[in-house]
Amino acid sequence: MRGEQIVEAWARWLPGWLDRRLPQPALVAPVTAPPTGEPSTEDASQGTAGSTVVHGFVRTEEGMPVADAVLTLVAPSGSRLDRVVTLADGSYILSAPIGGSCLLAATSRAYEPWSRHITVGRDPLVHDLTLSPQEAASPSHPA
Q1: Which residue, among 42, 46, 55, 47, has the nearest Cα to 13 in the 3D structure?
Q2: 56 vs 4, 53, 112, 127, CA distance in Å?
Q3: Half-sphere exposure of 133 (CA within 13 A, CB side)
Q4: pLDDT reading at 56 higher than 90
Q5: With bands split at pLDDT 50, 70 and 90, how would you rate the model's confidence at 26?
Q6: Which of 25, 86, 94, 107 is found 20 to 30 A from 129 (Cα to Cα)?
Q7: Which residue, among 31, 70, 73, has the nearest Cα to 53 in the 3D structure?
């Protein structure tokens, strides 16, 4: 029963948080109603204005949470859409524009950098990731 209560609390809290955090992504044109008498040409499958979330947990290969990892969501144009730091339990939540692909990248001092291309739809996207320990110190990986 406790899990259901947590989900219900998130469902009540999340929409208001998104409105304050990223009410209208800069990369998506605002939705306007077509003039009266003209049909809308916007297809729901092509991604419309609005935002959703990408969320999940960052863990080690042993399953331990990675706190203080920096997660960044990057648009195909290279602009940063959102950036957050994981919490003590390894959880994160990023705001993302609806529709299209993005690059999700994670960095942490003690772990190898991680990145993947993801596709964002209308529904929140759960994306857990696992970080590998950083190799011994080298010019590209200072101690």
Answers
A1: 55
A2: 17, 10, 18, 5
A3: 8
A4: yes
A5: very low
A6: 25
A7: 73
